[in-house]
Amino acid sequence: MDASADRAHELNVAPSLYTAHITFHREPVMNDHFVFNAGNVVLQSGITFRDAKLAYQTYGKLNAAKSNVILYMTSFAAHHYDIEWMVGPGKALDTDKYFVIIPNLFGNGLSSSPSNASEPFNGSRWPNFTITDSVRVQHQMLTQHFGIEVLHMACGWSMGGVQAYHWAALYPAMVQRLVVLCGAAKASPHNQVFIEGVRATLTTDPAFQNGTFVQRPERGLRAMGRNYAAMAMSQTFYREEVWRQAGFSSLEDFLVMSWEANFLRRDANNLLSQLWAWQHANIAANSVYNGDFHGALKAITAKALIMPGTTDLYFQVEDNRLEVEQMPNATLLPIQSIWGHRAGLPTANVEDAAFISTAITRLLQD
Description:
8-stranded mixed β-sheet, two-stranded antiparallel sheet, alpha/beta
């Protein structure tokens, strides 16, 4: 057993997560999930999206009381299998105890997305889903399809954490526990500027015409990956060449194999749709709170664990601290990490994985 595997064994974390490489995404597998047909969905924009489909996967067994449900949301561009690191027997989201549901965020290519849209909602006519739109369809699936009335916990990393925040604000009586890993209740001004830069980089590709990509923008996707890499990891991560610990031979190797390869696997129009949802995220931007952000935070009654990364350049600790101050039952627990935003998805980082797993396990047992 090598050192990383030995350390993983001590912490009861799967050794396969720490074997000398960062795995961001694997190739899509089209038959490894279920699909909930939500029918006609009236979006916040006023448009009715017809025949909406929500892809999801389940892990573990639903108990008779339907009280052991954990809802674990996907992050930007990710599919359910990209975030499975803490799902399984003996892991933080222990499938011997809990019934874990991972719904795929609209726009990720498995749920309804630009890449699988039919006329008239294809191309530039894609009607963007807000995070509120997505969470409401997830709620429809849980209540109508599964008959679930309470969530033992709602959780997620990055955009998954943003969705979890929306769940706790929109359905406070339903969400008993909340975990947000490197996420926030709304997109901060700096966050929005970052998204603008990513969008601008991607859409400079000549394949972007009249508001949509008419062919695969390889140059734009590669450029987006390099742009993204600068903000996703911390300055210390790069200064100390931590990417070597993950099995990369050079900085260029890291940028090409982790970041360019990551986005080259994705559909560019899907990425644009999720960037839009991320940029417009706000738990108060709905008819329930009518823009009252503080009121939305105060309405969250779940026992909440808000876990920002100390070197995260997307969602700062200070943003979360200001949110936690307004929440009646929340704890701020920063992840002391040099892995930047990726501290919340530690597929190659045993220390952060152990810290997060321990914290979540304690919350679930409380």
